[in-house]
Design a protein that fits this description.
InterPro entries: PHAF1 (IPR005373), PHAF1/BROMI (IPR039156). Belongs to the PHAF1 family. Pfam families: PHAF1. The chain has about 300 residues and is mainly beta. It folds into two domains: about 170 residues; about 110 residues, no CATH class. Helices cover about 10% and strands about 40% of the residues. The strands form five sheets. An eight-stranded antiparallel beta sheet has the order 4-5-6-7-15-12-11-10, covered by helices on one side.
């Protein structure tokens, strides 16, 4: 089996030609759909989440054959701050068309420095017993028993790691993240390519009148598909819309656009319970609008 080749794009993504691309900020449903579409080449995928603490613990999607782990933020459920590669035996990694790790020749400190260019000394992590070389949006971890085995030196203004022994340690872990510090990564915005005509929720609040809840106010971002726009926007426009109890189907569609999916609830069971002598009032089944990317299910009542 030939391993996949991925291109490393710091602070952005891990891309495998036309097969798949993992982009920071992508919603979880699109990540799962992309993996399903690439199921012929990407197999043995594991999805882990916490039933006890679903909104406090990260969700993880692990590509076990390829040694890649995707960390999903639990509240907004987007590809969070980390794309982690923890096993380099079955995949090839390159940066700016330069291969720095392959199954036949795994990366070490020297290869990483030559490929990315050392700009400052590495940092030793006492807890994990490893050295960290980092640049904005990407970090590399190398095993080291103690800090005395590695010395930070400068040469011509560039920082590098000088190992006391002759054997350079091999790369143990690579992290793609948003920001400049992998221990304090930023939650990235949804990439424009991931909108695909969908709305993405920012916040939702109840609307009260005379002490009673009469509706829901949605704040969301959406893809700009204006025909008058001559260039792609740097960020999508934001909207605020109010859906009130009693609004018609047309009013909901005008405010939020087309739903992700429409469900119809059959009334056959209700007809059986009414009995043969009961008059059937309405032949139309209930209609449910599922706005998946906005976390809402709209019918005769709101479900957020």
């Amino acid at each position: 089996m030939v391993g996949l080749e991925f291109e490393v794009l710091p602070e952005s993504s891990l891309k495998c030609n036309d097969v798949i691309e993992f982009v920071l900020g992508t919603p979880i449903n699109q990540v799962i759909t992309a993996l399903q579409n690439a199921s012929k080449v990407i197999r043995n995928v594991e999805f882990v989440y916490s039933k006890e603490e679903p909104f406090t613990r990260d969700l993880t999607i692990t590509l076990k054959n390829d040694g890649i782990r995707l960390i999903i933020e639990p509240v907004f459920q987007r590809l969070k701050v980390l794309i982690e590669v923890y096993d380099f035996k079955n995949i090839t990694l390159k940066y700016c068309e330069t291969v720095f790790s392959s199954p036949d020749e795994e990366a070490n400190v020297d290869k990483i420095e030559k490929c990315f260019g050392a700009t400052h000394p590495g940092v030793y992590d006492e807890k994990q017993k490893m050295y960290l070389l980092k640049w904005r949006g990407v970090a590399f971890c190398f095993p080291a028993k103690d800090s005395s085995s590695v010395q930070s030196t400068y040469a011509h203004g560039l920082g590098s790691l000088h190992f006391a022994n002759s054997e350079l340690p091999f790369l143990q872990r690579m992290i793609i993240f948003s920001g400049s510090n992998p221990s304090e990564p930023k939650l990235p915005e949804i990439p424009l390519a991931a909108y695909c005509g969908n709305n993405h929720l920012i916040s939702v609040t109840s609307v009260e009148e005379y002490g009673r809840i009469t509706g829901v106010k949605y704040a969301f971002v959406s893809e700009d598909v204006s025909p008058t726009s001559n260039r792609k926007p740097t960020e999508p426009p934001r909207f605020e819309k109010i859906i009130r109890l009693g609004d018609t189907e047309q009013a909901v569609l005008a405010a939020l656009g087309a739903p992700s999916k429409i469900f119809y609830k059959s009334d056959e069971k209700m007809l059986i319970q009414r009995g043969p002598n009961q008059v059937k009032i309405d032949d139309k089944p209930d209609m449910f609008f599922n706005y998946f990317t906005m976390g809402s299910f709209l019918a005769k009542y709101f479900m957020i």
